[in-house]
Design a protein that fits this description.
By secondary structure, the chain is of the alpha+beta class. Strand 7 and strand 8 form a beta hairpin.
Length: 193
Amino acid sequence: APADPQLFHRRLAQGAAGAKQQRLARGGQNVKITRDTPEQLIVEDRPWLIAAFILALTLGLLAICLPDALQSKLPAQVGAGLCAALGLFLLALFVRRAQVIFHRPENYVQMRHRSVFGQVNVRHTLTEVDRAVLQQLKTESRGSWRVALSIPAGQSKGEHPITQAYLNNKAHCQAIADRINAWLADPATTRNA
């Protein structure tokens, strides 16, 4: 029997979407709680390791092309330009700093996302946030996770991820989500970071 063409196109579309999300998956434990008091909880993701790796890769490729490029050899100059452009592209694609500030005295949650293109700030009232949840990206071989804030009603209804990247460490993501939920539930809960 011939294959169902609609099923084929659905799987093709799912595969493309999964590949796009998978490129954002990474290992490590960059997401950290940097401040934990009854008044304020700050969760940050600083992807220094990825930035350092991309920078080292770019500089290594440039070091290969640079001697010939300085001798005015056109192919080497083009190669050096492509290496620099690739490095900038990878930095723009993968290096995005995230910071989420839960501020009880002023009743807000501020989500800050910064990349080479600028910074985006989104503010919600603290009472809008129901809890922190895990979002999972499933692949055939394994899964990746990230923490998101759940807002059940209002104009901002939905799940708002803290980071765009998925992490390969479920236990670490669950610990961050659990700490956010404990902080939201009990103003007296504190653990200095």
